[in-house]
Design a protein that fits this description.
Blueprint: E1 4-5, E2 8-9, H1 21-34, H2 36-47, E3 56-63, E4 69-76, E5 80-86, H3 95-106, E6 112-119, H4 123-129, E7 133-134, E8 137-143, H5 144-157, H6 161-174, E9 187-192, H7 206-211, E10 215-219, E11 231-236, E12 239-252, E13 269-274, E14 295-298, H8 299-303, H9 310-326
Parallel strand pairs: 5-6, 6-8, 9-11
Antiparallel strand pairs: 1-2, 3-4, 4-5, 7-8, 9-14, 10-13, 11-12, 12-13
Length: 327
């Protein structure tokens, strides 16, 4: 039997609230109230030591004079006041958003006052994007993976069955928010390349970036993977030409500093170092995919020769995903 919410399986009680960041922060807030061990794990890390978690007050979606709703605020009288802003994926709160909420911290009499960002992004990336402080208040960052680890540690330490129940539900729920396991992911992100120069004043093409430089790069923004894929596939000249393992990646703003023949816009980019090319065993045409369409396909659907086009491989991948959800 499966319980579906808007077509998605509800694998835990918190999933009944949905799958956005509000659902995650509601789940975290509820579990903080239920689990002293989880409170100690989280706020001991934020505060850098012991916190009187018994006197902790958690508020969700608190409305203020600024007209906004904070995701989660934590108070310990005279000791701690944190505003936690959460994002799904690699998103981060804007400086403008934190500035808007800073009067709430100014009005507090807590000894430690700070903003905490939470998303799937790792700490080194968040540090590059976010300033160290806003209006005199420090900005920390935690990943959903860390929160899930705090819950797992709390689960191992507590002997209370009701506490373990809620921690287990939280661990399951946060699994939807953590960065995917790249090592075990066998999907390929397939993109279209063209033969036009990367730079208007050059002759180096996007095909050259892959074939000669053994690299690929794209902006870190909506419409592109929020975290690096394990495999990249490239289609041009009417069909799939190669699939490559992503051996390593880095996040850079000015890609021309890596290669003077490259050109990117003024935002952060994922830059991938690609492994050797793997070729389909038969000619694989593109099929019914928009000219610049980007698709996900299981690696075997591209390389086994069992599917004639990339669009067929995409359809088979989607069929498998739907069947897995229905099991």
């Amino acid at each position: 039997m499966a319980l579906l919410i808007h077509g998605a399986e509800a694998t835990n009680v918190f999933r009944l609230q949905g799958g956005d960041e509000n659902s995650a922060t509601f789940a975290v807030g509820w579990t903080l109230e239920q689990s002293p061990e989880f409170r100690r794990q989280l706020f001991g890390t934020i505060r850098g030591g012991r916190v009187d978690s018994g006197s902790l007050t958690i508020t969700l979606q608190r409305h203020g004079k600024d007209g906004g709703f904070t995701d989660l605020e934590a108070f310990v009288e005279q000791d701690l006041h944190c505003i936690i802003e959460a994002k799904k994926g690699w998103g981060l709160p804007s400086v403008e958003q934190l500035q808007r909420y800073s009067p709430r911290l100014k009005e507090s009499n807590a000894a430690y006052r700070a903003f905490i960002s939470v998303s799937a992004a790792p700490l080194d990336y968040a540090r590059r994007i976010l300033p160290c402080e806003v209006n005199g208040f420090s900005i920390g960052h935690l990943s959903w993976t860390q929160l899930r680890r705090f819950a797992a540690n709390a689960y191992a330490k507590t002997s209370k069955l009701d506490e373990k129940l809620w921690l287990r539900e939280l661990i399951a729920h946060l699994g939807e928010y953590v960065a995917m396991d790249r090592v075990r992911d066998n999907r390929v992100f397939v993109v279209s390349l063209n033969a036009s120069p990367v730079r208007e004043d050059g002759t180096h093409t996007w095909i050259d970036v892959v074939e000669k430089d053994r690299c690929y790069y794209h902006p870190v923004r909506k419409g592109w993977p929020s975290q690096p894929p394990n495999y990249m596939g490239f289609r041009y000249r009417g069909g799939l030409q190669s699939v490559h393992h992503v051996d390593s990646f880095e996040i850079v703003e000015d890609v021309s500093k890596i290669n003077c023949l490259w050109l990117g816009d003024s935002c952060d980019h994922f830059v991938y170092r690609l492994g050797p090319a793997m070729r389909p065993i038969i000619e694989m045409k593109t099929g019914k995919i928009f000219r610049n369409g980007r698709v996900w396909c299981d690696i075997d659907t591209l390389l086994s020769g069992a599917w004639a086009t990339i669009s067929e491989a995409r359809s088979e991948t989607q069929r498998r995903e739907n069947a897995a959800r229905e099991e």
